[in-house]
Amino acid sequence: MASRSLGGLSGSRGGGKKNLSARNAAVERRNLITVCRFSVKTLIDRSCFETIDDSSPEFNNFAAVLEQILSHRLKGQVTWFGYESPRSFWDYIRVACRKVSQNCICSIENMENVSSSRAKGRAWIRVALMEKHLSEYISTALRDFKTTRRFYEDGAIVLGEEANMLAGMLLGLNAIDFSFCLKGEGLDGTFPAVIDYTPYLKFEQSSDSISSDEEELRTFGSSDSEGSTPENVGPPLIMDENSWFNKCKRVRQKYQLTLEQKGYLEELLRLRENQLSESVSQNKILLQRIEDSDLAHKLEKEQLEYIIVELQDQLKSYQSLDQLSAEVSLSQASLDPSHSQEGDGKQDSLNFIGEGKEDTPSLLGLCGSLTSVASYKSLTSLKSNDCLASPTTEITSPGLTPS
Prior knowledge:
This protein is mainly alpha-helical. 62% of the residues lie in helices and 1% in strands. The chain contains 12 helices and 2 strands. Strand 1 and strand 2 (84-85) form a beta hairpin. Helix 1 (2-47) runs antiparallel to helix 2 (57-70) and helix 3 packs across helix 5 (117-131). The protein starts with a helix and ends in a 31-residue tail after the last helix.
């Protein structure tokens, strides 16, 4: 009986330890996510009045919170000898964010003044904020569940349901223009980041409260006995003008801040809409140019094909004509051999006359008139009494008489 009771007691203690550890892990995750939401909100509020850089306490607190979230329950690196060495969240980001288009992983790795893994992770946070891609990096890393499971233990924030809210919270930081120096003291990786919870633990007196802090403290200090009655606790409801003026001033400041944020967001939205419309119009113009160029190329191709076909037809017709003319000349030569002999004799006689006599205009005209006759006769067959004068006949031409 005693052994059974001891066994049950030890089992209850083991179950209680598990429940306590689970409760502590859940509270730790919830606290980090809540503080991250507060830090993002204060960072956006501060960006409406001044530029966010390394000297801004709101940014330093946000960077510390994000570093704590990404380092929550991060597994160590096991060496060959079985020892487990600590690991930074940069080792996880370097592997899980390779799929992001135009990522800065290689640039961070090649930085000269950043040597430690923790310093590279802090430099990555600053570069991602300046590029307005921090939310995209986190979303891509969380989608790679296999890599995330390999780097983190059970109960980590990036493995729980809180991870789905993290990327959404960081999306609002894309509206802020950050300016950081990647050679400053913020990249020192020798010390871990510490979160300052003081800005998120301030208590402000609500306007709906019926008593002030001083009245409550005085009431609690004077209530030593049980004889105090509720009538002595309630403060007067009449408030002086200064308190009303201060409340109105605070409300006016909040309204002015909200109005400025609204104007900034409206201006940013209008700018993005203009950029989107310009991109759409440019895309339409480019598509129209591509269609016109394709149509022009098709027309040019059809014209070139038509020209090639015409040239091929002309070449075939020329070849057929040459062949036909060659056949006709062969047939004429075979049918009329005497004509060819007479033609050769006539050509020889003309060549002899041209060589023996000087070229005169009268002879040139005569030759021209002879060659212009379609059915001319050869010089050897002409009769002397038809075309040529006799040697005894005197030529009485005024142009040929001697002077």
